[in-house]
């Protein structure tokens, strides 16, 4: 009877969920905003229309993802940019870039924080590289970092705090069930 009860409990436990979350991210890329849209299971949104809005909801433009789920957008004004894509079946990807980050892309000086007594001005050293060399290096680094960003976003979606706490809860539940069964055996024997 106890084995049957344990079997029923094991069958009643929920299995792994087959749902997936939407992953959307944007980051600066030279004078452009580059982004990606996909799902936590690794599927990327290909040939997907992405609408661009400002912080007040005014439409700024549109772009389309490529075969890898990446898109590029050239900002025109130093305002907050919100990227939104309707992936169907209730999945809507939305991510944004702050006005300060867009201002830096456009070469507009962002507001500087008030200096504190212990801060020192840091001036970058001259590198001796031409603008073409810098652009080539930036492109190479960006292409190498793309897969890492995708893996980090997918990992973050799969291993969140709720998953960890759920696993710990299952462990405590199994221990509790074991202690309960042991106590019942002890009472029945004694």
Structure in words:
This is Cobalt ABC transporter permease. It comes from Pseudoponticoccus marisrubri. Keywords: Membrane, Signal, Transmembrane, Transmembrane helix. The relative contact order is 0.13. The two termini are 19 Å apart. Strand 3 and strand 4 form a beta hairpin. The model has no long low-confidence stretch (mean pLDDT 79). This protein folds into 2 domains: 117 residues, Immunoglobulin-like (Sandwich); 29 residues. Helix content is 40%, strand content 24%. It contains 4 helices and 7 strands. The strands form 2 sheets. A 4-stranded antiparallel β-sheet has the order 4-3-6-7. A 3-stranded antiparallel β-sheet has the order 1-2-5, sandwiched between helices. The protein is an alpha+beta fold and 190 residues long.
Helix content: 40-55%
Q: H/E order of the elements? A: HEEEEEEEHHH
CATH level-1 class of the largest domain: Mainly Beta
Number of domains: 2
CATH topology call of the largest domain: Immunoglobulin-like
At CATH level 2, the architecture of the largest domain is Sandwich
Beta-strand percentage range: 15-25%
Output the radius of gyration: 26 Å
Quick gist of this model?
With 190 residues, this protein is of the alpha+beta class. It has helices spanning 2-12, 99-106, 131-158, 161-189; strands at 22-29, 32-39, 49-53, 59-64, 70-73, 81-88, 91-97.
């Amino acid at each position: 009877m106890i084995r049957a009860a344990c079997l029923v409990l094991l069958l009643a436990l929920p299995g792994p969920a087959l749902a997936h979350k939407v992953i959307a991210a944007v980051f600066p890329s030279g004078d452009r905003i580059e982004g990606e849209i996909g799902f936590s299971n690794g599927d990327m949104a290909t040939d997907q229309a992405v609408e661009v809005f400002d912080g007040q909801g005014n439409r700024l433009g549109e772009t389309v993802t490529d075969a890898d789920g990446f898109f590029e957008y050239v900002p025109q004004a130093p305002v907050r940019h919100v990227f939104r894509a309707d992936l169907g079946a209730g999945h809507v990807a939305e991510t944004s870039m702050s006005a300060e980050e867009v201002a830096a892309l456009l070469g507009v000086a962002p507001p500087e924080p008030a200096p504190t007594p212990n801060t020192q001005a840091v001036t970058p050293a001259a590198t001796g590289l031409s603008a073409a060399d810098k652009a080539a290096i930036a492109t190479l680094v960006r292409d190498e970092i793309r897969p890492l960003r995708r893996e980090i976003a997918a990992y973050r979606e799969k291993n969140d705090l709720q998953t960890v706490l759920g696993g710990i809860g299952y462990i405590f539940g199994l221990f509790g069930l074991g202690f309960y069964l042991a106590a019942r055996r002890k009472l029945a024997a004694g």
